[in-house]
Amino acid sequence: MKPNETAAPPLVMHEIAEGAAIARISPRYLHMRIAAGTGPEVTRFGRRVLIRDDRLRKWIDEQTEGPTMGTPDAAKDSAALAAQFEDAIRCYMKGDFVRWAQIVNGSKFPVKMFAAAGFNVVARLAEQADDPEQFLELVAEVIRRD
Questions:
Q1: C-alpha distances in Å from residue 92, one per residue of 40, 103, 112
Q2: C-alpha angle with apex 117: 132 to 14, nearest 5 degrees?
Q3: pTM here?
Q4: Residue 82: other Cβ atoms inside 10 A
Q5: Where are the beta strands (DSSP E) in the chain?
Q6: If you ran DSSP here, which 8-state letter would residue 69 be given?
Q7: 64-73 per-position pLDDT tens digit
Q8: Which residues pair with 52 in a beta bridge?
Q9: 113, 78 in Cβ contact below 8 A?
Q10: In the predicted model, what is the mean pLDDT of the chain?
Q11: What secondary structure, in 3-state letters, does 123-142 show?
């Protein structure tokens, strides 16, 4: 290296547990977000999953509420997305795959958001249930609604 050149900063990478600790979330939640495609971008070396520090911090910044989050339009979009997801699940469970595909493909929301809404609906039902049987009853109730 020449005297007037500066060294590039070292590349910092985190394992899932470390990244979760930095974001102050559980490793399981971070795994879920990565699997759903709504988490930070990851680098894979065989079975090892690493998150670059700059990508993790960018993702954390994207999760921060800004002027558009929490607005009536965002709430309306969230409610519409949840309703579309429930309709899609209902069609899928009834075996109406043509209608299911129309809902999923015709949604104005990206597939990643559609998947995230699914996680939110399932999580909401899981929070309401006291045991697995009650959870299944709540899911069945969502499917029966017409």
A1: 30, 10, 18
A2: 90
A3: 0.43
A4: 15
A5: 13-15, 43-45, 48-52
A6: T
A7: 765 555 555 6
A8: 13
A9: no
A10: 75
A11: HHHHHHCCCHHHHHHHHHHH
